[in-house]
């Protein structure tokens, strides 16, 4: 099986993306990033899900708190019960997906992999600019210009975004069919000290509605 690098946060979307990569015939290598996010629960979820799915997981560190500009890496309050999709919210982390894909690209070059997977979604999402198809296409073009493997003709990189045009309900149905252990995943931006989801941030509300619309029981522990 050919290797592929899957950007992995332990959330609903990235866990589904991991399962899709495996279904599509790849041997997935999960890459999680400790980037200074305000809690550790998503990384713990990444470890749980990777272990359950028997996928190797690498965790790297890049501290984006030095840049700031986001409620996920600084002291800004995470919005609760706010309208979703009206402008770019303060939970956007400047250049995060660009940086994370660059790390995934470097890891892929070392592994000899030519395929990257990212679980971005441009239907039921908060409006982040680095979750759109145009961003994915642009990074793929960059990958084939910026690496020794591509320049020397040893690799032709493809960035897969299999969830980009799916609704959250469609993602839940897909992951359920593929056996994703959603009860082990974590999506909340602002969990309590025990890791229970707040139920009110954008991510929680999109996740909850996705399970409801899919007709699948929601395994999330809410505070």
Structure description:
- With about 220 residues, the protein is of the alpha/beta class.
- The protein has a single domain, classed as Rossmann fold.
- The chain contains 7 helices and 5 strands.
- It has helices at about 10-25, 40-55, 95-110, 135-145, 150, 170-175, 200-215, and strands at about 1-5, 25-35, 55-60, 115, 160.
- It has a 5-stranded parallel sheet, sandwiched between helices.
- α2 links the parallel β2 and β3.
- The longest helix is centred in the middle third of the chain and has 16 residues, at about 95-110.
- The radius of gyration is 17 Å and the shape is globular.
- The N and C termini lie far apart (about 40 Å).
- About 45% of the residues are buried.
- The mean pLDDT is about 95.
Mean pLDDT: 95
> Nearest-angstrom radius of gyration?
17 Å
CATH superfamily: HUPs
> Which spans have pLDDT < 50 for at least 5 consecutive residues?
none
Number of strands: 5
Overall form: globular
Residues in β-strands, percent: 5-15%
Q: Kindly report how far apart the N and C termini lie.
A: 41 Å
The largest sheet is: 5 strands, parallel
């Amino acid at each position: 099986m050919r290797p592929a690098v899957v950007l992995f946060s332990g959330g609903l979307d990235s866990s589904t993306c991991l399962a899709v990569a495996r279904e599509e015939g790849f041997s997935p290598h999960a890459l999680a990033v400790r980037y200074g996010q305000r809690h550790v629960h998503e990384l713990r979820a990444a470890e749980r899900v990777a272990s359950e799915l028997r996928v190797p997981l690498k965790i790297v560190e890049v501290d984006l708190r030095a840049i700031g500009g986001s409620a996920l890496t600084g002291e800004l309050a995470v919005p609760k019960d706010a309208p979703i999709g009206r402008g770019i919210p303060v939970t956007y982390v400047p250049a995060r997906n660009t940086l994370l894909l660059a790390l995934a690209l470097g890891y892929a070059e070392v592994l000899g992999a030519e395929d990257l997977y990212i679980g971005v979604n441009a239907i039921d999402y908060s409006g982040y600019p680095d979750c759109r198809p145009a961003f994915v296409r642009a990074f793929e073009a960059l990958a084939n210009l910026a690496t020794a493997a591509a320049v020397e003709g040893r690799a032709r990189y493809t960035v897969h975004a299999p969830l980009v045009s799916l609704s959250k309900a469609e993602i839940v149905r897909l992951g359920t069919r593929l056996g994703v252990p959603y009860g082990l995943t974590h999506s909340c931006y602002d969990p309590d000290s025990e890791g229970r989801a707040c139920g009110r941030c954008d991510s929680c509300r999109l996740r909850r509605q996705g399970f409801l619309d899919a007709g699948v029981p929601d395994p999330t522990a809410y505070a």
